[in-house]
Amino acid sequence: MAAPSDGVNCDEFAEFQELLKVMRTIDDRIVHELNTTVPTASFAGKIDASQTCKQLYESLMAAHASRDKVIKNCIAQTSAVVKSLREEREKNLDDLTLLKQLRKEQTKLKWMQSELNVEEVVNDRSWKVFNERCRIHFKPPKNE
């Protein structure tokens, strides 16, 4: 399940996290997906496991790329806001509202950056499970 990466609201971290949660559905359900679509040896003749694994591979690749784009886009947007607020703060050192806003944006930026680490763990887990079940049915292209 890929969500559109354009038009993502990066202003609210809770919305950002909720979007990622929805976008991670494919990774959350991969074990179930593989158990229900990739046959065990006793059922191998009844289902085209190579086609199923290929489709799952393509879905995972697309989902991971889409989430990566969303996360990096929001990091870039928030970084620009932080930079702008820092510059404004240098001109108005006495403005406590500005300082508060700067701190809030810096915190949000750190949280967004930490999502890159979460993403790495989620992706690694999904590829590990995928490879365990699909390695004999499907070989991903070498260039990826």
Automatic annotation (TrEMBL):
PANTHER family: COILED-COIL DOMAIN-CONTAINING PROTEIN 58, PROTEIN MIX23. InterPro entries: MIX23. Belongs to the MIX23 family. One of its GO terms (cellular component) is mitochondrial intermembrane space. It comes from Cricetulus griseus (Chinese hamster). It comes from the Eukaryota. This is Protein MIX23.
